[in-house]
Write a structure and sequence with these properties.
single chain, alpha/beta, DNA polymerase, domain 1, TIM Barrel, 2 domains, 10-stranded mixed beta sheet, two-stranded antiparallel ribbon, 12 helices, 12 strands, binds S-adenosyl-L-homocysteine
């Protein structure tokens, strides 16, 4: 609930306006998981709240900690037994949580583990928030940055993701800076225009992964609906309007999209778009058969783009020993449908 919705709900319980603010701050600033924790609220009212409302929390189903870099991967279970993944990473500037926006994904990208079993459902705003709150509580830390790059396609769950963004940035709650949030999309073009019109200060990441339709069609089914030209036109308009730099994600797959020719074509097509290019050695997922490009190939690809004037980074690999990439933990958790039903 937004503060406004909570205020209306409290009015129905004949409670004063400040009560909504108190509860909101318990929920969103202190990440309370039960009404019992709300000690500045009378016991009577706490009981009434308990009878009328539910605080949705994410329970830690499994947690893996990387031996190399302390990256932590969580498998959280939700109220209906479905599971989602989040990854906690520590950087010089603070903690970042990579959150999921859906259980599974229906976008069908060939290299991605999240989409292998399709989408089960979209997450509620509270379920996206609760991943952050649970990771904070578990480590007694404050998470300063969030990337919507876990399971799911954020723009396929647009309204809930917008509400999540409002809540996580709200002053009475976590007050996370919108500039510390990245939203990644595989390229749902009409929603990119909707997002453009919200004029948010977040960073838009676009999973491009190929310079032309011929290659992108083989990697990402979404390209058959909105092709590279349509997508890049939306990106150009987005940066023109918001003046925010787009980050293009490019997963490097051996012999698929990593030739010199691809780099040159990419440089050509991105001309005039305010952007940054992030090269990712593809994480090899057994079922996808994708092999990652060699280090030499990635460096060469990167240098061609740099010579053409682009800023390029090669994503540092964190948590590779704990299956930290998209959808891998949920698939390896080995929980059967029956077990899920029991839990
Ligand atoms: N659905 C959104 C966000 C989730 S995926 C999107 O497509 O952008 C986050 C990023 O991880 C995307 O860039 C996605 O293409 C990339 N990704 C997925 N599987 C990967 C893999 N096996 N190796 C490298 N990157 C991968």
């Amino acid at each position: 609930m937004s503060l406004q919705e909570l205020t209306e709900a409290m009015a129905e319980l004949n409670q004063p306006k400040f009560r909504a603010k108190q509860i909101f701050s318990w929920l969103h600033k202190f990440c309370a998981v039960s009404f019992d924790e709300m000690t500045n609220i009378s016991k009577d009212l706490r009981e009434k709240l308990d009878d009328n409302f539910v605080i949705f929390t994410a329970a830690i189903e499994k947690k893996l900690i990387s031996e190399y870099d302390n990256t932590q991967k969580y498998l959280f279970s939700l109220h209906d037994g479905e599971c989602v993944e989040s990854v906690l990473m520590k950087y010089k500037y603070g903690y970042t949580l990579c959150v999921s926006t859906q259980v599974g994904c229906r976008m069908g990208c060939k290299f991605c583990a999240s989409t292998l079993e399709g989408v089960v459902r979209s997450l509620e705003p509270s379920e996206i928030l609760s991943q952050i709150y649970a990771a904070q509580r578990d480590n007694s830390i404050k998470i300063s940055h969030t990337v919507l790059m876990g399971m799911g396609e954020p723009l396929d769950n647009y309204d809930n993701v917008m509400k999540f963004l409002k809540l996580i940035t709200s002053e009475e709650g976590q007050n996370m800076s919108m500039r510390h949030i990245s939203l990644s999309t595989c390229g749902i073009v009409p929603k990119i225009y909707d997002l453009m019109n919200e004029e948010l200060q977040l960073t838009l990441s676009v999973s491009l992964h190929a310079p032309n339709d011929e290659i992108r069609n083989t990697m990402m089914p979404v390209n058959k609906k909105w092709n590279v030209e349509t997508l890049l036109e939306a990106c150009r308009r987005y940066t023109d309007k918001t003046h925010r730099r787009i980050s293009f994600e490019y997963a490097m797959v051996d012999s698929v999209n990593d030739s010199d020719e691809c780099a040159r074509e990419l440089a050509e097509r991105l001309r005039g778009i305010l952007c940054h290019i992030n090269l990712i050695p593809v994480n090899e997922v057994k079922e996808t058969g994708c092999k990652k490009s060699s280090q030499n190939r990635i460096e060469r690809f990167s240098s061609i783009l740099e010579k053409k004037g682009y800023t390029v980074t090669v994503r540092r690999k964190l948590g590779s020993d704990i299956n930290a990439s998209c959808g891998q933990l949920r698939r390896s958790s080995g929980r059967t449908e029956k077990e899920k039903a029991v839990n």
